[in-house]
Amino acid sequence: MLNVIWLVLLVGSALCGVLTGHLNDVVIAVTQSANSAFKLALGFTGIMALWLGIMRIAQESGLVTRFTAVIAPVMRFLFPALPRDHPALGSMAMNIVANMFGLNNAATPLGLKAMADLDSVNREPGTASDEMCMFLALNTSSLQLIPAGAIALLAGGGSSDPTVIVFPALLATCVSTAVGVIAAKILARVRRFRTAASEGSEDDNIT
Amino acid sequence: MTTLPEFSALASNVLFLTFVLGIPLYGHFKGVRVYETFVQGAKEGFDVAVRIIPYLVAILVAVGMFRASGAMELIARGVPEALKSIGLTPDVLTLAVMRPLSGSATLGMLGEIIAAHGPDSYPARLASVIVGSTETTLYVIAVYFGAVSITRTRYALHAGLLADAAGIGASVAICRLFFA
Questions:
Q1: Long-range contacts, stretch B143-146, CB < 8 angstroms, 24+ apart
Q2: Is pLDDT larger for residue B177 or for residue A194?
Q3: Is A19 in Cβ contact with B74 (below 8 Å)?
Q4: Same domain, yes or no, for B72 and B154?
Q5: Number of domains forming the structure of chain B
Q6: Are residues B58 and B37 located together in one domain of the fold?
Q7: Domain check: are B166 and B124 in the same one?
Q8: B159/A136 touch (CB, cutoff 8 Å), yes or no
Q9: Given an 8 Å threshold on Cβ–Cβ distance, is B133 in contact with A176?
Q10: Contact B166 A41 (CB under 8 A)
């Protein structure tokens, strides 16, 4: 899927560039984007280090384990194959909380920590596990309770009531998250997406 | 009286500080040597940042080319009447198409819609609700999987794009209920 979308974006953009007379802009965008991708990753290093440091303290102090226990019922439904005290449950929960409150600077580093924790019990290196796909479904479905960016733009544009969108957006977010979770649950059972590892995890838990 | 945006900013700050101050304090009382432990964990930060570079380059180059290509104008030109009648005007629809690809481009387009139609208009509200209920799916997939060097993403992108489509559909239906 990612292969197809990537190729369609590359070839489609070049074709559209020819059609609309923007071919020169497309060519410039190639090198500029590659350059800004590197700068983005490098600029991310400090925040990443900060949250990995904080997370290590949370782990060694036993805070992650306690936090995991509190949200265990939900996480057991979403990630049934993970052992109940697995550290990934704690880091995923912290990522989800940070996402809900719109703390993007914290959410991504915590999410990447969670991915590393999930990868430690991944049976097939290089291939996504069911837990990873579910975690990504949550993260790509929007968990943010209050859309701060949109509110700021409405307020900046002179809206008489910029927060009028909060409740509708919250409802729509619930729908998108529910669909993401259900889709991940169903797609995990589709033959085309199954792997040797996910076949094996049907009966026994990851140990 | 504090308004909701002010309250939400305050709540975010309090939560942020709860993480950054609360966790080291808790660790200290639990007998953790907080400074050493922090540095040990933070060491891995650079590795993660370097590991995601190839994935970021792949996605941002494709999205950058797409944004520069004028493809959005072509999409906007072909919007059928049926979509326009439910509020998906060309500008709102292109915003919805751009949403999974780029967060900054989407916010820019939202700004343009607010400027063109007015901040209290139906298109501005619909676009805001769409932005608030969807995510930059492609970017999240690239970065999260990139951090653990995973290239075979199985059904993660399918689930993410389905969630985005559901968010857009729900936004259209809910906005008709609330604002039409």
A1: B143/A108, B143/A112, B143/B52, B143/B55, B143/B56, B144/A111, B144/A112, B144/A115, B144/A132, B144/A135, B144/A136, B144/A139, B145/A115, B145/A128, B145/A132, B145/A136, B145/B55, B146/B51, B146/B52, B146/B54, B146/B55, B146/B56
A2: B177
A3: yes
A4: yes
A5: 2
A6: no
A7: yes
A8: yes
A9: yes
A10: no
**B-chain residue closest to A153, CA distance:** B111
Check whether residue B68 and residue B157 sit in a common domain: yes
Give the range of the structural domain holding residue B92, as residue numbers without chain letter: 45-179
Closest-CA distance of chain B to residue A205, Å:
20
Residues of B in contact with A118 (CB under 8 A): 148
The domain ranges of chain A are 40-200
- B26: confidence class by pLDDT, cuts 50, 70, 90: very high
Residues B124 and B142 in one domain: yes
Confidence of residue A102 (pLDDT cuts 50, 70, 90): confident
Task: Tell me whether residues A14 and B61 touch, CB distance under 8 A.
Answer: no
Give the pLDDT confidence score for residue B5 in this predicted structure: 62
Q: Tens digits of per-residue pLDDT, B131-168?
A: 999 999 999 999 999 999 999 999 999 999 999 999 99
**In chain A, which residue's Cα lies nearest the Cα of B65?**
A26
Residues 14-33 of B with CB under 8 A from A: 15-16, 19-20, 23-24, 26-27, 30, 32
| pLDDT, tens digit (0-9, with 9 covering 90-100), for A15-54 | 999 998 899 999 999 999 999 999 888 888 888 899 889 9
Q: Are residues B29 and B50 part of one domain? A: no
Phi, psi dihedrals of residue B36, rounded to the nearest 5°:
-60, -45
- ipTM summary value: 0.88
Nearest CA in chain B to A116: B148
In angstroms, what separates the C-alpha of B81 from chain A's closest C-alpha? 23
Residues B68 and B121 in one domain: yes
